[in-house]
Amino acid sequence: MAVLDILKYGNPILKEPCDLVKDFSKLPPIIDDMFDSMYEAEGIGLAANQVGINLKLFIVDITHTRETEDTHVFINGTVMKCSKETEYLEEGCLSVPGVNLNIIRPKEITFRYQTIDEKWHQKEFNGLFAKVIQHEMDHLNGILIVDRVTALEKMKHQKKLSELMEISKSK
Ligand code: ZN
Asked: Is 136 among the catalytic positions?
């Protein structure tokens, strides 16, 4: 088990869409490291490319809410359907620390994904769970929360974003 470095805004890897998982046998140690890294950073979700792993896979732990009692691993996911109804939620991101943004997203989604046993599932999600899934799916498609707001909104955080960009460049 190991705590991995979480890539920050400005790192080009975060802009690359991830590849499908084909070999499930190599996942267990990767997933262990991802949970260690997420807990160390006190996050509620983490996508594989945030720790430099090019796989379509993310983890979620929102057990602090009453929405779910388990931790979750979502593999090769696709959002199949979105509700017309949307809502704003303030989102943060471990790759953009110190920047919280109001992001508008569909309230409910139908999500198709695989679990570690390679089984396929299709389920509806709402509330915080739906938001976290959409946030992490954005990561796997190379999209960050700053890409989801207006240029003006992004500009308000320019100082912080420039600092993160410097950190990413120096690595
Ligand atoms: Zn994030």
From this structure: yes
Cβ 155 vs Cβ 146: under 8 Å:
no
The CA R_g of the chain, rounded to the nearest whole Å, is: 16
Longest dimension (CA), the chain: 45
Instruction: Provide the residue-wise pLDDT of the chain in tens; the chain has 171 residues.
Output: 799 999 999 999 999 999 999 999 999 999 999 999 999 999 999 999 999 999 999 999 999 987 888 999 999 999 999 999 999 999 999 999 999 999 999 999 999 999 999 999 999 999 999 999 999 999 999 999 999 999 999 999 999 999 999 999 887
Catalytic residue among 136, 153, 163, 166: 136
Distance 99 CA to ligand 1 centre (A): 11
Going from the Cα of 39 to the center of ligand 1, the distance in angstroms, rounded, reads 14
SS3 18: coil
142: tokens are 């190379």
